[in-house]
Write a structure and sequence with these properties.
The protein is mainly α. 73% of the residues lie in helices and 0% in strands. It has one domain: Alpha/alpha barrel (Mitochondrial carrier fold), CATH 1.50.40. The model has no long low-confidence stretch (mean pLDDT 88). Pfam families: Mito_carr.
Length: 283
Amino acid sequence: MSVDPPKANLFQSMALGGCSACFAVNFTHPIETVKTRMQVSGLGIGETASSLYTKEGIGAFWKGLGFAWGREIFYTSIKLGAYAPVRDFLGAGGDAPFYMKFFAGALTGGVGSVVGNPFDVLKTLAQTNKDASAPLSTMVGAMYKDQGVAGFYRGVEANILRACVLNATKMGVYDLTKGYVTDATGWARKDVRTSFCSSFVAGFFMTCTVSPFDRIRTNLMSQPTDKKIYNGFVDCAVKTVRNDGVASLWRGFIPIWARFAPQATLQLLTLEFLYTSFGFKSI
């Protein structure tokens, strides 16, 4: 008689979630760098990538990677790793309504974004810094001098909204899709084929829902340190639409999808692998 494996507790799950995220970001960070540059410059993907390589070298694609690791440790460990324990605590496991799964994802995503916001700001500044003669430490020092600690929480409202929408979509769709895949194919929930299909579907829907929030967040976080162009999320959204049109909110859709799909797949496959390796129940 087989015995179901135990569920990872909150801290165990967060630790495994952080490890899986740090592993995945090494491969997807260059795509995000191109996406961030596209959102700021308005150039196409080919032109942006070519300019980045020609003017700044191959290493520029990994600008801000250290801050990305910090972000994954403090942000993704909560939004990804805490999802299953929080979902189960809320009674949203199994055949619970989809909105309960989305709520669990939104809750962990929102909390994680508050903790990880300083690393998001630093990562965005590093990715958008084209002047090699102006090191990031100088930019950070100027931002702290002008804005204090609040500078590291610039764009936090956009980041919280983005994280809630992102994680609700990512974990909710992933969780639901696993149920559909197992019913349609007979594969187990912990089967790597189930995880791969479910995470790929989640990556597409994440791109559709998150792109506008991602664009606004980038605008807020990349504005000059010595002056504010936007006064909060709503002001930034209005000015962005007024200046560039509604469609501009989905600018960078292809690189966002090119990042989200493999990132979600790598993160979730790695997390499921770690759950299994440590003898815990899968998502």
